[in-house]
Design a protein that fits this description.
This protein has 372 residues and is of the alpha+beta class. It has a domain of 150 residues: Thiolase/Chalcone synthase (Peroxisomal Thiolase, Chain A, domain 1), CATH 3.40.47. Helices cover 35% and strands 22% of the residues. The strands form three sheets. A nine-stranded mixed sheet has the order 5-4-6-7-1-8-13-12-11, with helices on both faces. The chain has a two-stranded antiparallel ribbon with strand order 2-3. Strand 12 and strand 13 form a beta hairpin. The two termini are 18 Å apart. The structure holds coenzyme A. Coenzyme A binds next to helix 3 and helix 9.
């Protein structure tokens, strides 16, 4: 058995930002257009008018201030409310592979590894732009990596589930150097016309390099333990799939995009996540006081405040549990890895932390790490 370690990490951040104010202005213009179009039905009491959104609500309900997206104009066009992402030919790199490549290159540079030394690529994300060939195999090809590659999807928990799979293979010796990459184009599965959730998501890609601790060339974190759990729930769901994909259905099927019962998610996932982290720590013989940092899934600030308090048994000090959701919004599986990538450089030898992602399934994955 070999000791697995995270030896590199990287984040691809799109160039375009949408602020809450810009988003709300576009949404309200869309709502006004829709209400005007449906004035007779609204007057007859047959349909409800769409209410205005507000930046104040978004900030207080979620903690989100901005989000990065691949295409701002399409999202903010009140007659469209959907990104314009050029359909690519089969001979061009796909959109997901392209952003993944950027994050992987940064992670490999940090690890001091050439792509040819990689023998496993896992593309772990909550949506994949096609069924097959696997996006991961395309990334492997673009990188010039060896070995094998596959896609996996555990929604917002994809990154930690991917890390568990890669770490187990490094531990057993079946692979020597793995990349887990999370290209998340959330803007294309969000319904930007739905007031209840239009503010939630942003786009990003993250990557981590996992290899033997003994092979590490620079600063790295030992993976001390991984733990994953799932429990079926319909409260976060996206029904898009090949059985349902006809043009007619696409026009009127709201459930072909991200759907959630946010209040229930809040209530049901919170206890599941804090209990999961605590029992994982207990299994590894870790105490709350051992934790220098929590890098949590980035969906909601109140949710993270609650989990941090429950796990540490006190209100976390500033910096102990860094959030990035104010800048990135919810980036599905990538959120906890962005937080880790941006807020782990200052940790010292022996410092311990937990990366935890959670979401649809329900699913929760935790990775206990220690600075080597
Ligand atoms: N602007 C203004 N008001 C809005 C609004 C908007 N964009 N969206 C909803 N509201 C209103 C609602 O109409 C409701 O008003 P009412 O009380 O008069 O009926 C009120 O705000 C509360 O709405 P609700 O949807 O219950 O808000 P919330 O406090 O639960 O916050 C979420 C919504 C989505 C931010 C929150 O539930 C959440 O983060 N849940 C967990 C999300 C999560 O982790 N999901 C995983 C995804 S991967």
């Amino acid at each position: 058995m070999y000791q697995p370690a995270i030896t590199g990490h990287g984040v691809f951040t799109p160039e375009q930002i949408i602020t809450n104010d810009e988003l709300v202005e576009a949404f309200n213009a869309y709502a006004d257009l829709w209400n005007a179009d449906h004035a007779p039905q609204i007057e007859a009491g047959e349909v409800e008018p769409i209410g205005h959104s507000s930046s104040e609500f978004i900030l207080s309900a979620s903690g989100i201030e901005n989000r990065y997206v691949l295409d701002k104009d399409g999202v903010l066009d009140p007659t469209r409310m959907f990104p314009r992402l050029r359909a690519r030919s089969d001979d061009e790199p796909g959109q997901m592979a392209e952003m993944a490549l950027d994050a992987c290159t940064k992670a490999l540079t940090m690890a001091g590894r050439d792509a040819s030394e990689v023998d496993l690529v896992i593309c772990a994300a909550s949506n994949h732009e096609r069924a097959y060939p696997a996006i991961a195999v395309e990334i492997q090809n673009l990188l010039g990596a060896g070995g094998f590659a596959f896609d996996m999807n555990v929604a917002c928990s994809s990154a930690t589930f991917g890390i568990q799979a890669a770490a187990d293979m490094v531990r057993s010796g079946s692979v020597r150097c793995a990349i887990v990459v999370n290209p998340e184009i959330c803007s294309a599965h969000l319904e930007w016309r739905d007031r209840d959730c239009h503010f939630i998501f942003g786009d990003v890609a993250t990557a981590v390099v996992i290899e033997r601790d003994a092979d590490a060339k620079g600063d790295h974190f030992k993976i001390c333990g991984t733990s994953c759990a799932t429990k079926f729930s319909n409260n976060i769901r996206n029904n898009n799939g090949f059985l349902r994909r006809t043009r007619d259905q696409m026009e009127d099927r709201r459930d072909m995009q991200f759907m959630q019962n946010g209040r229930k998610v809040f209530k049901e996932v919170l206890p599941m996540v804090s209990a999961h982290i605590l029992s994982h720590m207990q299994a590894e013989g870790w105490q709350a006081d051992d934790l220098k940092r929590l890098w949590l899934h980035q969906a909601n600030k109140t949710m993270n405040d609650f989990i941090g308090k429950k796990v540490l048994g006190r209100v976390p000090e500033p910096g102990e549990q860094p959030n990035i959701l104010q800048d990135y919004a919810n980036t599905s599986s990538a959120g906890s890895i962005i937080a880790f990538s941006k807020y782990s450089h200052d940790l010292q030898k022996g410092d311990k932390g937990v990366i935890c992602s959670f979401g649809a399934g329900y699913s929760v994955g935790s990775v206990l790490i220690e600075k080597a």
